[in-house]
Amino acid sequence: MNKRAEEFQKRLIATEPVHLDAVVEFAARAWRRPLTDSGDQGLHILYRQLRDSGISHEEAIRLTIARILTSPAFLYRSEQPAPGREPAPVSGRELANRLSYFLWSSMPDPELQKAASTGELSQERTLVQQARRMLDDPRTRRLAIQFACQWLHVRGFDQNDDKNERLYPAFARLRGEMYEETVRFFEDMFRNDGSLLSLLDADHTFLNESLAKHYGIDGVSGPAWRRVDGIREKGRGGVLAMATILASQSGASRTSPILRGNWIFETLLGERLPRPPSDVPDLPDEVPAGLTARQLIEKHSSVEACARCHARIDPYGFALEQYDAIGRLRSQSVDTATTLPGGGKIEGLHGLRDYLLEDRREDILRQFCRKLLGYSLGRETRLSDEPLLNTMIASLARNGYRFSLAVEMIVRSPQFRMIRGEQFSGN
Asked: DSSP secondary structure string, 158-222?
């Protein structure tokens, strides 16, 4: 028995270098680049110092991995600026990282790494082919979560706990399904090259039985998720009628036309309001007896200091008053007719949707493209990006507003494929 134990211990010791080699190989993947000689030696030196201090092999390996995962090379995507003042193409490795973190929120897979190492990825044709391949992959779900849900301010909605449990006892049970609907809607748009206009006018969504019942849609049984068509006639379709949007832009106990209107104004249309006066009184959490939510807002908005801004956002919110604070259609009819700042009149979801698609289409497309471009580059868009945005919008209008076209125009752009010089001093 002792002999067998001794032999096993010898095998453990003999395999220690193999374990360390595997950790060094892992470091190259985690840091998304080949290790330099100093980097390789540094990990071996760290391991040896840990062992010499009396730490066991297993613990030394654990601490070496911790060193890899706390390195700036893992935590940040650093890029080497071009020498001088002029921009230059990024390296193949850096381009692969840009593309992979844009579409998958993760490091490049082996196929993308190979294209980068051979230099093929720097060719525009290969770059576009890789982008198309990556869009047609389940990992595109991450783009739906990290880009679309963050842009629309519903990222992590499944953890939302700001609803009055007494008034809305079903919300905690349904919030995960509400979030899943939004994620699946965008994943489908991205993977199947949907039209960007379906943000507003989609006649489909993704439901299971419990969420379908919440929406008042029949014919959906069981927990499995499926695509359901013909939902506009049910008062649904597009992000404006999704429970995530309607609930997140409501209060704990009541709807908020102000929040919903401001969300449309700022998030969808990309406009900004000045900060409200500091002495504006807070609205009550629950609507006082004898008033509707709309009447409460109209009374508040009649204050002279507030009226100008409220006139720009409240009409959008009033048009969505047919939905309660967790996105259900109200059982009783409510007044959703409203007058827009320019004098036009709309009523309800259908009127708001038509107005946004017909009168504000370019504004919504520009905002989407601006946010997608900024997300892909990891920075705010600048004045110098406006020519690219103009080209994207014009090309989308000629080609059915397909999502893949927006992605392809971004990855082909100088902004995505090049890096500024280290001595660049412009804005």
From this structure: GG---S-TTT-TTHHHHHHHHHHHHHHHHHHHHHTT-BTTHHHH-SEEEE-HHHHHHHT--S--S
13 in the same domain as 52: yes
Q: What angle do CA 221, 223, 228 make, to 5 degrees?
A: 60
b/e sequence 17-48, b meaning 16+ C-beta within 10 Å: eebbeebbeebeebbbbebeeebeeebeeebe
User: Is 257 buried (19+), middle (13-18) or exposed (0-12) by CB count in 10 A?
Assistant: buried
- Residue 230 in contact with residue 203, Cβ under 8 Å? yes
Same structural domain for residues 188 and 162?
Answer: yes
Domain span at residue 167 reads: 154-358
* 8 A C-beta contact, residue 209 and residue 222: yes
Cα–Cα distance for residue pair 185/208, rounded to 1 Å: 13
Residue tagged 């991205």 (tokens): 190
Asked whether residue 422 falls in the same domain as residue 306, the answer is no
Task: Please choose, from the candidates 172, 170, 154, the residue with its C-alpha nearest in 3D space to the C-alpha of residue 239.
Answer: 154
Residue pointed to by tokens 């392809």:
408
Domain annotation covers residue 206 = yes
Both structure tokens of 294: 């709309």
Number of structural domains (the chain) is 3
Domain check: are 340 and 395 in the same one?
no
pTM for the complete prediction?
A: 0.87
pLDDT tens string, the chain, 427 residues long: the values are 565 555 545 565 667 888 999 999 999 888 888 888 787 889 999 999 998 999 999 999 999 999 999 999 888 887 877 777 788 999 999 999 999 999 999 999 999 999 999 999 999 999 999 999 999 999 999 999 999 999 999 999 999 999 999 999 999 999 999 999 999 999 999 999 999 999 999 999 999 999 999 999 999 999 999 999 999 999 999 999 999 999 999 999 999 999 999 999 999 999 998 776 665 666 666 667 767 777 776 766 666 666 677 788 999 999 999 999 999 999 888 999 999 988 899 999 999 999 999 999 999 999 999 999 999 999 999 999 999 999 999 999 999 999 999 999 999 999 999 998 766 645 4
